[in-house]
Specification:
The chain is α+β, with helices and mostly antiparallel strands and 258 residues long. It has 2 domains: 4-75, Winged helix-like DNA-binding domain superfamily/Winged helix DNA-binding domain (Arc Repressor Mutant, subunit A); 86-256, Beta-Lactamase, CATH 3.30.450. It has helices at 12-21, 33-40, 44-56, 74-85, 87-103, 145-151, 156-165, 179-192, 234-240, 242-256, and strands spanning 60-62, 69-71, 106-113, 116-123, 138-140, 195-198, 205-213, 219-228. The protein has a 6-stranded antiparallel β-sheet, sandwiched between helices. A two-stranded antiparallel sheet has the order 1-2. Helix 5 (87-103) packs antiparallel against helix 10 (242-256).
Amino acid sequence: MSKPKQNTLFVGSLAKGLRLLQAFDETHTELSLAGLAEITGLDKSAVQRLANTLHVEGMLEKDPVTRRYRPSHAWLRLAYAYYWSDPLIARAMPKLIDLAQRLGETVNLGQLSDEYIIYAVRLPCTRTHFAASVPGRRVPALSTSAGQAILATHSPADCAAAIRDWHLHAHTPQTTVDRAAIAEQIETARAEGYAITHNQMILNEIGIACAVRGPDGRAWAAVHCSVSSHHWDDARIRQDILPWLQDTANAISPQMRV
């Protein structure tokens, strides 16, 4: 890909505005101009102009007292448009709802987004805390069962490059950051057709995922179930969850080959 300065179609001011929007996340829900400048690396005068423009255009709300900015309802409209634009979600949703009702556990549709898994659909159970119920959370693909299940369907060369280069971060004291160990886990997923991870994002959480394969056999999404290790062990997961998870992923996959 060409660098922005070599691309005559690249609009630098628009890119800066998008950097401003991307500064907001679950840890930065409201930001001052100084905070926006620190996160984006832009100078404060540019941040002031961009933030004001985004406020006038309805993309950011501004507290009249604190003068801090936060995302507006326009973001929900964009998310709504995304859900209507992605045919996979429309096809998968009825099957995911049925799976969640059968299992009584948290069910997600994870999609590969660069080197991350983004949870596009989240169907929580009664024990799910708020953060795990909101779509859009992004987590390192190498550390999740969904990411490992997806990578297991890709070529060995592409998989090896991902294991070598993709981001890793210890979210818990037990998160696996040994890339050789992750390579072994993905090869196991390739052989068995599913992936299981333990304590990677949250302590006492077990994730199990089956890939949703596309027309060429590779996957860019996975059906994922998250359960508590206080109530489940691997043997019970393989007996009571895995068959339903596989059936759901396989029911979605053939439609992707049309």
